[in-house]
Structure formats: C-alpha cells, structure tokens
Amino acid sequence: MASLAEIRARLSAAESKQGTSGQGGDNAIYPHCNMNEGDSATLRFLPDGDNNNTFFWVERAMIKLPFAGIKGEMDSRNTLVQVPCVEMWGDSCPILAEVRTWFKDPSLEDMGRKYWKKRSYIMQGFVRDNPIADDNNPANPIRRFIIGPQIFQIIKAVLMDPETEELPTDYERGLDFRIAKTQKGGYADYSTSKWARKETALTVEELQAVNDHGLFNLNDFLPKRPSEEELKIMQEMFEASVDGQPYDPERWGSYFRPAGYSAPVTAPINGSGSVSTPVAEATPTPTPAPMPPVAESAAESAPVAEAPVQTEAPASNQKAEDILAMIRSRQQQS
Question: How far apart are the C-alpha atoms of 82 and 84, rounded to whole Å?
Fold first, then answer.
C-alpha cells in the first residue's frame, strides 16, 4: 500500500502534468465533422510554426483497437482505444507486421482493414465562415484541423496543379478552402469540398492574430513516441482486442486509455517503493467529437505504399508583423 507521502507525490505529479499539457482545453480544434449535412465551412490554412517543415501539415497515423467493453463494468459498451503507429517515426510497427500477413488470406482482409493504421493530417488556420452554431470560438482565432484522407487529397491536388503560382498559405495571395459536407451511401462525404478560385489576402485582424499568438508548431500535437515498454503494452492490447477481450484498465490504464476515460486511481508502485509515473495517453492532441463514418475509410485501410507529396518550400519567411505593417502603411497612404 502506498504511503501518504507517495500519494501526495503522485497527485502533485498529476497536477503538474495537467498544467503543462492542457492543450485539450483551448477549444482550438475545429469540429468540421459536426456540420449538418449540406453545410460548408470556409477555412484559410496557415503555415506550420516549424520553419523546417516543408508542408503546412503533419501526418498522424493511429491504430484503433476495439474492445468488448471495459472489464469490471457491467453495462459498458464496445470500447475503442487509439494507439500511435510507430511507422510515423520510421520504426517497424509490431501490430502492422502481424496485420500485413492477414492480407495474404482473403478471409482475413476485412479484419486486416479494421486494424490497419488510419491516417489523418493536422493543419492550422482561420475559420472564415462557420456554420456550426454551437461552436465556441476560442480567444486565439487560429484553429487546428484534423483532416481525413478524402479531404486531404483535394487539398493536395492544388499543390500539384501547374497553374497554382503561390502556396495557398501565402499571407497575401493565398486561397480559401471550403469544406462541404454531404452524404453518400449512409456515410459523411466531403468529396465536393474545393479550393476558392480567387486569391485573397489575410485581413488586418487575421495578421494581428498571427502576430499576437504566433503559429502552432504542429509536431507538438502528434502522439508521444512509444517506449519499448509501451510497445509491449500495445502488442498485448492488440492481441486482447483480436481475441474479443474487454479493455482492462488495471493492466493498461496507465499507458493507453479510451477517450475521456480517467487513469486508474490505484497507482502502480515500482520495486523501490516509489510511485511509478503513468505514461501519457496515446494521443496528446485534443480529441474532437466522434466523427460519423466517412466513405473513404475502407480505401484508406488498404496497406498500399503511398509516395510522399513533393512540394516546394516557401520562398519567403516574411513574418506576420512585417506584412501587417506593410498593409497598414498602404492604408495610411490611401
């Protein structure tokens, strides 16, 4: 049994962790999936705050592990836990190593697709036209977007178009992007989303927001790279999921948890008698409301190698405040 001092140390560590990783409370993620069918939202993407990133997005790959409820809870429903696919860091993923073999057997292909990595892309920018009535605008108007593969292919297309002369994130000659939500075969469908044809500059207010708040470093919102111990836990959870077992919070709760599920109250104690610090949840990025199924999900599940997008790095690193000053100077002269 843990001593009072150990319990206090554990609680202090938890409070410190919440204070430094409170990214989930800033309401920065824009939940475009909550739009009604037939609605559309206008977004204006911004560059990554990391100047070393050629793209204005970072790619995230997660594996969804379904469980038959939660162990010890009588009325628990099917439970889903997301774990990071370590191929994001160029490592060999033990789960996908197993799943790849399933595609050699036609009878296991559907199971393979269920456990195959799901890609998404983290971007940032402004919401210029918001149809979601109950969306609470954060103090920082620069929002983050979790973009699925279907929308991403449309976004990528403009970069590969030889008629595109400027990056769509350019502060003066960029392009808006309109996400349109429809339905196809009972699933949410975003295939009618499109880029604006006319270039527009960021407004003075938007430039001021970039100047005041700065750009997010998108890598900060990727999952934490799993340790060797966490990889073993992921493999154990994967095998339990395939076997149809329930999620066991006592075995895995200090490592990976379902969204919204709290860590176990009883802290594991290591051999020296001190409280072991729990590992962060699989996905440190704030989790938006559950997305309705999208028609693209089956195609995304297929284990097909994808070539990286080739785009040129921005030619200029001009800061927002410089552009803001230039615009205000022009306004004063007119």
Answer: 7
**Cα–Cα distance for residue pair 268/274, rounded to 1 Å:** 9
The average confidence (pLDDT) of the chain is 79
SS (H, E, C) 173-211: CECCEEEECEEECCEEECCCCEECCCCECCCHHHHHHHH
Helix (H) or strand (E) holding 127: strand 118-129
Rounded CA-CA distance 243/65 in Å is 11
**Crossing angle (nearest 10°) for helices 320-333 and 204-213:** 150
Q: Find the mean pLDDT for residues 47-62.
A: 95
**In the prediction, which pLDDT does 266 show?**
46
- Domains of the chain and CATH, by start: 26-333 (3.90.198.10)
The residues, any chain, with a CB within 8 Å of residue 225's CB and separated by 6 or more, are 84, 86, 89
Residue 193: per-residue pLDDT: 97
Collect all residues with Cβ–Cβ distance below 8 Å to 214 and sequence separation of at least 6: 49
What pTM did the predictor assign?
Answer: 0.72
Q: Which residues contact 265 (CB under 8 A, 6 or more apart)?
A: none
Residue-level pLDDT at 12: 53
Q: Which residues contact 239 (CB under 8 A, 6 or more apart)?
A: none
Instruction: Work out the average pLDDT over 51-78.
Output: 91
Q: What is the pLDDT of residues 15-32, one digit of tens each?
A: 444 433 334 445 799 999
CA 176-181-184 angle, 5° bins: 140
- Distance of alpha carbon 332 from alpha carbon 311, whole angstroms: 37
Sign of CA dihedral 80, 86, 87, 88: positive
